[in-house]
Design brief:
By secondary structure, the chain is of the alpha+beta class. It contains four helices and three strands, in the order αβαββαα.
Length: 119
C-alpha cells in the first residue's frame, strides 16, 4: 500500500479531523506506569505491535491481568503482582523491559533479573 499523502495548497481553508495512530515510545512507558496502581486502567490508541504485545505478555507473566478490548484498547488491572522475578527470555525480546523496574520496585520492594535480561 502506498504511503498516504496530504497535499496542501494555499488559499483554501482546511477543515476536518484525523485521528493519529498510537506511538510505541509513548505507549510502552504508560503500560509500565499502569502497574503503579491496584485499580483498573484502560489505555486507548495503543499500537498493537510486537513490542507492545511482548510487554503485555511480560506483565501477564507476573500476575497482571491485561486484555485487549478492541484493536487498540488495552485493559490492565495490576491488583496483585507476584514476586518480581521477570522472565529473562521475555526481557531479552524487548529493551523496554527496563521500564518495569520502577513500578515493580515501588509495588514489590525488590526486583530480580537475570544477566541475560536488559533490565
Amino acid at each position: 500500500m502506498p504511503p498516504i499523502q496530504y497535499i496542501v495548497e494555499g488559499g483554501h481553508r482546511l477543515k476536518g479531523t484525523i485521528e493519529p495512530s498510537g506511538n510505541k515510545n509513548a505507549a510502552l512507558p504508560i503500560i509500565a506506569a499502569s502497574l503503579l496502581t491496584e485499580h483498573p486502567v484502560t489505555l486507548n490508541n495503543v499500537p498493537r505491535i510486537r513490542d507492545t504485545e511482548t510487554l503485555v505478555e511480560l506483565i501477564r507473566s507476573i500476575g497482571v491481568a491485561a486484555q485487549w478490548q478492541s484493536r487498540n484498547s488495552l485493559a490492565i488491572h495490576a491488583r496483585t503482582i507476584r514476586a518480581a522475578d521477570l522472565d529473562p527470555e521475555l526481557c531479552a525480546r524487548i529493551r523496554a523491559s527496563i521500564l518495569l523496574a520502577g513500578p515493580l520496585l515501588a509495588r514489590c520492594g525488590e526486583l530480580t533479573c537475570s544477566s541475560t535480561s536488559p533490565v
